What we know:
Blueprint (H helix, E strand, L loop, with lengths): L1 E6 L3 H26 L6 E2 L3 H15 L9 H22 L9 H5 L7 H15 L12 H19 L1 H10 L8 E8 L8 H28 L8 H10 L6 H10 L1 H4 L9 H14 L1 H9 L9 H14 L7 H27 L3 H16 L21 H5 L6 H10 L5 H9 L4 E9 L11 E10 L14 H20 L16 E2 L12 E8 L4 E10 L13 E8 L5 E11 L6 E10 L11 H5 L6 H8 L8 H26 L1
Parallel strand pairs: 1-3, 2-6
Antiparallel strand pairs: 4-5, 5-9, 7-8, 7-10, 10-11
Amino acid sequence: xxxxxxxxxxxxxxxxxxxxxxxxxxxxxxxxxxxxxxxxxxxxxxxxxxxxxxxxxxxxxxxxxxxxxxxxxxxxxxxxxxxxxxxxxxxxxxxxxxxxxxxxxxxxxxxxxxxxxxxxxxxxxxxxxxxxxxxxxxxxxxxxxxxxxxxxxxxxxxxxxxxxxxxxxxxxxxxxxxxxxxxxxxxxxxxxxxxxxxxxxxxxxxxxxxxxxxxxxxxxxxxxxxxxxxxxxxxxxxxxxxxxxxxxxxxxxxxxxxxxxxxxxxxxxxxxxxxxxxxxxxxxxxxxxxxxxxxxxxxxxxxxxxxxxxxxxxxxxxxxxxxxxxxxxxxxxxxxxxxxxxxxxxxxxxxxxxxxxxxxxxxxxxxxxxxxxxxxxxxxxxxxxxxxxxxxxxxxxxxxxxxxxxxxxxxxxxxxxxxxxxxxxxxxxxxxxxxxxxxxxxxxxxxxxxxxxxxxxxxxxxxxxxxxxxxxxxxxxxxxxxxxxxxxxxxxxxxxxxxxxxxxxxxxxxxxxxxxxxxxxxxxxxxxxxxxxxxxxxxxxxxxxxxxxxxxxxxxxxxxxxxxxxxxxxxxxxxxxxxxxxxxxxxxxxxxxxxxxxxxxxxxxxxxxxxxxxxxxxxxxxxxxxxxxxxxxxxxxxxxxxxxxxxxxxxxxxxxxxxxxxxxx
Length: 665
């Protein structure tokens, strides 16, 4: 019969707590360690502004020696491991009472001891531990003396008395079968009557209050968010605000509308510095700022304070205005880091309606925020992306520059100290080249209606001023071999499940960080591939976001990377003239385009193909033809031979006539 006992000493409860803490703390610690000790980004722009910005970001993330920045997760891990160590220490001090009965251990003899030696040893122990021989002291009571002697006697009998020895062998105890005890890993004070009300109150508070509140908060919070991670009301505002012909100002105003729900009300308060920033922005932009404010208003004509504050801070970043207030700086950083999520949701709205112009405007807005340049920046203003150059410096430094190489040349002529940083930035500049763009159908030479088509785009990065890739002069055989190898590589990539071709070891440059000294975080360069119809202002297929385009390597046969987009072709035949856009989300103005034509044809009709009879009938002068003629089958006549026979007979007649004429003479 089993009896249930609560954990009087707290041993089992302690082991249960140790197990639970280990199951929670070990995975969290491993994830934290692997995240912090991961590969640090060292590649990318090494100009002074970018290096200093990365150092500042690292300092803000880790803190200083005197003021370290510790996250909530770190505090939780420290507290958890401290509790784990304390419980382990307490367990090490506990005395384990449950152990197997071993008479040899009680008597202090070896298991190989003979029965004669056991009796002799027991007599010696009786003289030492008999209650009449041992004196009672303060630390040794009469009960303890008697209990020890009884234990020795039972151990002796377990080895000498046949009945007791049989009980020990069968039931592991000299007194025979014992009742089974089942321990419950709960301290006894939890179930005691006087504490019952407090235990029930704790259970009710946790399972009746805290747990439903936590689940409800998660449930209702998830209902307020879309799959893009923004507020549902923000998504509704995007649908209503974006239009087919929306300009950049309309896109920015649509973005600003979302901050009515994305920006907490407590942070939407105005300040004197915010008002001054708005005046400066109005002086620099003029009518454009007025238009943005007007478009961002509600239907009642009022501009919500959170929208106004967000737009002012965003445009202060785009115009590179200094902010002195620490609180405003922090809010501006939070807004900027939130813009990619909002822009992504806004882009999904535009792409869902297949609108080209607003989609391109949203994509270009990514780069404007990254480089802190106004939307629709002029060609010359884009030179301000180079390190150390402000928009006001462009006219002074390089008034006639047409590209970045000209700016670098002007700085070198003037021996400007910013030359070194400009060179470092240009070495890693992500200027993308479209090597080729084509449509492919697996296993087919022509594209038929409604077939599965792949847009195959091959890209590489050629920084400004880099040496152009020169193709080697190949022989005819080498050219054929190169074309065949390229076709095989393309076929292998098209039949794979990858959207981007795997990089070779020579193309892997590691984790790269783009030149973005004004962005409050590390930025990895990315691009969109867009297949669009300019004439109808439509996006043909949803854009694909790509990254890790390899740098060009002059002399390498394959210094590019292939990307593919799968879509279903049009259901009707015809010639479709489209355009491929490759738009950067990091650098303003760095995008490439190329025209591409898709020809949809019907399959060849049966009339254009040879009939079965024409294919199967052999010529009569061949062995197959002779055998077919013998079987009575049809064969093709050889007309050339008959003509030659006629010609030879004609020649013979002419010869005979000439001979007769000569005889008559």
